[in-house]
């Protein structure tokens, strides 16, 4: 394996909660109204320092999507997913965009999003716009 080169972000950033690898800037948030099985999730235009998994079809609240999970390059933790394709015309704006699950990242102020009792812990990831 070669040497790992990380991209360091300047400004208000989201980082991996396990290893603090920089992942995204708050300026690149498109929407904060997404949800996943652990609670809140944010839609980003750009994310750095991640690798992608295998493409798979997932049924979400807004229909069928082709997605790949994204993993932190620092520690290998899954931090969210990337939209590769949307089957519904109204959802095409998500293609090429990234979801970071708030439960799996630290906020710009170092805050950690905690799971509440009313958060659904089972079922597939879902998005809600």
From TrEMBL:
This is Protein yippee-like. Belongs to the yippee family. PANTHER family: PROTEIN YIPPEE-LIKE CG15309-RELATED. Pfam families: Yippee-Mis18. GO terms for molecular function: metal ion binding. InterPro entries: Yippee, Yippee/Mis18/Cereblon, Yippee_fam. It comes from Sesamum alatum. It comes from the Eukaryota. Keywords: Metal-binding, Zinc. Residues 12-109 form the Yippee domain.
């Amino acid at each position: 394996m070669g040497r790992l080169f990380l991209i360091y972000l300047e400004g208000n950033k989201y980082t991996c909660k396990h290893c603090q690898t920089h992942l995204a800037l708050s300026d690149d948030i498109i929407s904060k109204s997404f949800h996943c099985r652990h609670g809140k999730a944010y839609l980003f235009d750009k994310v750095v320092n991640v690798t992608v998994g295998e493409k798979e079809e997932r049924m979400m609240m807004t229909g069928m999507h082709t997605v790949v999970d994204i993993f932190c390059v620092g520690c290998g933790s899954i931090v969210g997913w990337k939209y590769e394709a949307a089957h519904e015309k109204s959802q095409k704006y998500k293609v090429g965009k990234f979801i970071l699950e708030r439960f799996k990242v630290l906020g710009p102020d170092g805050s950690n999003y905690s799971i509440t009792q009313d958060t659904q812990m089972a079922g597939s990831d879902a998005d809600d716009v």
